[in-house]
Amino acid sequence: MGACLSCGSHREVAPAPEAPHRAGHSVFGKDTEDVHAVYEFGKFLGRGRFGSTRLVTNTATGEQLACKSIAKHKLLKEQELMQEIQIMQHLAGHPNVVQLRSVHEDAASVHLVMELCRGGELADVILQRKQQFAESEAAAIMRTIAEAVAHCHASSVVHRDIKPENFLLLNSSEPAALQLADFGLSAFVSEGQRLSDVVGSDYYMAPEVHARSYGREADMWSCGVILYLLLSVSLPFIGATQQEVKEAVREGEYELERGVWKDVSEHAKDCVRRMLHVDPAQRATAQEVLSHPWLQGMARQQSADCWVTV
């Protein structure tokens, strides 16, 4: 939806493709329907690899929602789409995860109708702001992100593409009112299970993903990259080429002392370090991040400020 903090070296690597499905073929093995009889399609909200997301209005109730339409002729593996739907249904009910309302199929596309987030992407907010967030703001945003990821992990789901573009704001006035979206690369994973396919976005990809042996800890590395970005308006691992970005990630070295970091508290820096630990076994979990003294302290400070304001 506009801004991109993952472009240039952005990459999403999928397994070897199967033959695409022809239009008219039923993905779900049942009769197709006319989705335009149920929803009026409005403006485009975003475009992806396999389709687009548009604003839709329920013609019966007037409710506005977001509809992700996946073109069948671009769909390479039915099971990947089925898994995305299953994961969204599995995660339903959490306030920080985009809610899937319904699924429809017509002759040309599969349509996922979801709750509408009117505030755009967190990426847009970061790029428009052009300066680092105050620690209280960064902590509030990170708390919401960690809550969403903790719910995924407690539900045996690894997202695999945590980045600012995939966190949507419920409204434009509250940057911390976020919902996690886009589960197209997500997977079910059991405790201790290791995955091997290299998927995600280069700037946010954990080193063990490149090594083709990773679990849910990879999501926490991505969260650490986001926190680094919020506190400094710069990415920790950069390079002129995709390969240079990979090498920077593998080395795991980043700046926390010079420039804007001189004004960042040690508690905040420690939270970054815990998430950007190269060894996934030593990396903080989502629950550990939520219990971190920095987040806890910022939460108490915000509560006190609200009490004084009242």
UniProtKB/TrEMBL annotation:
It comes from the Eukaryota. PROSITE patterns: PROTEIN_KINASE_ATP, PROTEIN_KINASE_DOM, PROTEIN_KINASE_ST. GO terms for molecular function: ATP binding; protein serine/threonine kinase activity. Residues 39-295 form the Protein kinase domain. InterPro entries: CDPK_Ser/Thr_kinases, Kinase-like_dom_sf, Prot_kinase_dom, Protein_kinase_ATP_BS, Ser/Thr_kinase_AS. ATP binds at residue 72. Keywords: ATP-binding, Kinase, Nucleotide-binding, Serine/threonine-protein kinase, Transferase. The keyword ATP-binding applies. Belongs to the protein kinase superfamily. This is Protein kinase domain-containing protein. It comes from Tetradesmus obliquus.
